[in-house]
Amino acid sequence: MGKRNSQRKNAAMMDSDDETSSVGSSSTVRSDRMSVSGTEEVNVDQDSLLDKALDALDEKRGSTREKAFSSIIETFNSNMQHEFVEKKFATLLHQCLGAIKKGSKKASANEIALASHAIGLLALTVGCGNNAREIYEESVRPLDESLTTRSDASKISSLVRCLAIITFVGGTDEEETEKSMDIMWRLINPKLGSNVVSVKPSPSLITAVVSAWSFLLSTMGKLKLNSKSWQNSITYLSSLLDKEDRSVRIVAGEALALIFEVGVIEKSSAGSNSGSDSTQEETKPHESYVHIHGLKGKVINQVKNLAVEAGGKGSAKKDLNTQKDLFRDISDFFEYGYSREIATKIGGDSLQTSSWSQMIQLNFFKHFLGGGFIKHMQENEFLHDVFDFTPKRRNLVDNEQRMSVGEKRMFKSPNSVQNKARTQLLNKQRLLSKDRNFGHYAVNAVEEEA
After folding, report:
1. Please, is 81 exposed, middle or buried when counting C-beta atoms within 10 Å of its C-beta (0-12, 13-18, 19+)?
2. Confidence of residue 393 (pLDDT cuts 50, 70, 90)
3. Phi first, then psi: what are they for 345, rounded to 5°?
4. Which residue in 254, 330, 343, 402 is a FRET match for 28, CA 20 to 30 A apart?
C-alpha cells in the first residue's frame, strides 16, 4: 500500500501559462507604471499611481472607473501594498462597496466583478486583524444582496470568490463560515418555494460556486453536522459527477473527497444521544449513517469510472489526463485513506501539500491571484502562515531590501496587523491540522465497523 501511495504522488509545477482571473489581467498598469527610453524602463511611484486610480473611482464615466479598478488590481498583484493600505484602507473599501451595492452609480457587471476582486485582494493584503474583520462585516450584506440579482455569470463568480476570501481571512467563527457557504449553495441548489424561481446554473457558475464552497469547507475543524443537510450535499455533488462539463466533474470530485476527509461518516455514525428534546432525526443516527454509507458507495463507483474514462469526441487529451489522474487519486483516497500529495514550485522553493483541504486552498488562491500568485506566496505573510511556508532565506533578504521604510515599520512593529494576527491564525491552523491528521481514519470508519 505504501508503494502504491508513493506511485500516486503528484508533482504539480507552476507554469507561466497557468489560468489567471480575467479581472486581474489588465495591462493598463504596466503601461502607466513605466516610461520607456530605448530599452530602459523607469518605474513610477506606485503610491502615486494608486492615489490616481482611487480618485478616478469617483468619475462618472463607467469605463474610467473600470480602468481604475483594473489598475488597482494589477498593482496589488504585483507588490504588497502595505503602506498604501495603512493610509487609504477605509477609502478603498468603501469605493469598492459603492460599486457593488445595488443601484450605486449604475455599475456594470464588469465593474462589480472588478470591485469584488479588489476587495478580496485588499483582504489578503491586510491579513488577519481588525481591518480584515471590518472588510468582512462591511461586505457580507452587499455581496449577498448583489448575488440575489442573477445576471452576468462572471459577475456572480467574482462575487462568490470575494465572499470566500473575506470569510476565510476575516471570519472569526464557524457560524459565519457556514452562513457564507449557505449563501453560495443556494445559487446552484436553491430551496424552492412559492417565491423562488428555479434557474439552471451554467457550468462556469457551478464550478466557481463549488470551488468557493469547498474552499470554506476546508477551514471547518469541527462540523455541526445536520445529517439531512449532508445527505443533500453529497447527493447533489454526486449528480455533478455525471455532468458533461469536465470542470464541473473535477470540482465536484474534490469537494466529495474533502467531505469524507473531514469525517462526515464517522461523525454521522456517532449521532446524538437521545433525550427528551431530541428530534426524530437525531434519535435515528444509524439510519442516517446507513444512508450516507450508501451514498459513499455510489460515489466510489462514479469515481472509479471517471478514473478510466476513455474520452469523447473533441475531448482535449491534457484535460482528460488531468481528470483521470485526479479521480485515480480520489479512488486511492477512498480505498486507503491517504490524501493526494502535491509539490508546487514557487520561485526557487517547493511547497508540499498532503491533504485535500490544503490542495483546495492552494488552488483557490492560485486561481484568485492569477499572475500575482508567485509574488504573494513569496512575500505575503498571511499566506506563509496559512500554509506554514517559509521562502528560502535569499528570497527573504531580497524582499527586505525591496521594502519601503513604511513597509519595514509595519512588519517590525509589535503593534502591526501582521504581528497581532499571527498567533490567532497559527492557533487556528494548528487546530485544523490536528483534526486533519485523523482524516483517513474517518474515511475507513465504515470498514472498521463492518
Report:
1. buried
2. low
3. -80, 130
4. 402
